[in-house]
Amino acid sequence: MMRTRLLVICVLALAGCSAVPEITGTPRLQARLAGPTDITLTWQAGDTGHVVEFATDPAGPWTILAFAPPGQTSYEHQELIPHTRFHYRLRPYGGPTSNAVEVSLPPGELDPGADHAWADPQVIRTGPVTTGPRGTPGGLRATIVHANGIRFTWTDHASDEEGYLLESGERVLALLDPDVNAFGIVTLPEEKRASYRVRALYYGPPSNLATQTTGADPSSARGSAQDLGDLLGENRMPAASIRAEPVTTQMNRSVMGSQTGSEGRAL
C-alpha cells in the first residue's frame, strides 16, 4: 500500500484570540418575484453575517441557502418549482474564531481515484480539555495530505456551540456538527494558496418570515409559443386570426424577470 507523506504546515498564529462580536438583531427580510420562478430576497446590511434559509412550510424544516457575509444585502433564489409557496428567513450568526493558518499546496492535479476517508468530520479526544460557554477554538493545524487535500484539526473549547464553520476569508466552506474537531477538504486545482480558520458557531434570533408564490414555468410558455407556430404552419392560417397575446405577454414578463440582478454576492 502506498503511503502518502504528510507535510505539516506551521501555524500562523494571530495575536491572541479574536473577540466575540455580539450577535445583533436581524434586519427585516423582504421577498419579491423577479420572474415567474425566480425570487429575490433583500435586507439591510448589519454587523454580523446572516444565514439565508427557506422552507415550503412556515413551520419548517428549514434548508440553508447561503451564509451571507455582513456586507451582503440580497440573494437570488432561481429556477424554483412553479406554483409553489416559498417561505424565507434570516438568522444572524457569529462566534469566536481560531487562529488563522496559511496553506500553500504543492504542484499537482487531483487524482479522481484517491481515497478521501481522511476528510470525514471526526470528534477526536486525546485528553482533558477546558471548555466553557463561547469557548474559542484553539490550536488550529493544517496538514497537507496531497496536492489538493488539506486536513484540519483543532481543540474544541466551547461547551455550548451550535456547530463549527470552516472559513476562508468571508467564505464559509463547511458547516460541521457540534464537538467536531477534525475535518478535511479537497481543493480545486487553482486553489493552491489560501488562509483558513474555524469558528464556534452561534445563531441569533430569526427574522420575520418573507413569503412569495411562484408562477407558471417559463419553459411551458416557450413550449406553448412553439406549439402555436406549428399550428399556424400546419393549418396555413394568417397569424392575425389566432390571439396569441397571453403567451406573448407571459414570455415578456419572464424575460424581464431574468434580467433582474443581485446587489449582494452569493457565497
TrEMBL record:
List GO molecular-function terms, semicolon-separated. Answer: hydrolase activity, acting on glycosyl bonds
Keywords noted in UniProt = Carbohydrate metabolism, Glycosidase, Hydrolase, Polysaccharide degradation, Signal
- Residues covered by the Fibronectin type-III domain: 26-108
UniProt-listed Gene3D superfamilies:
Immunoglobulins
One example of a Gene Ontology biological process annotation: polysaccharide catabolic process
Q: Where is the composition biased (Polar residues)?
A: 208-223
Q: Which domain of life is it from?
A: Bacteria
Asked whether the UniProt record includes ATP-binding among its keywords, one would answer no
- The residues forming the signal peptide are 1-21
Location of the region described as Disordered in the Swiss-Prot/TrEMBL record = 207-231
Q: How is this protein named in the record?
A: Fibronectin type-III domain-containing protein
- The scientific name of the source species is Nonomuraea soli
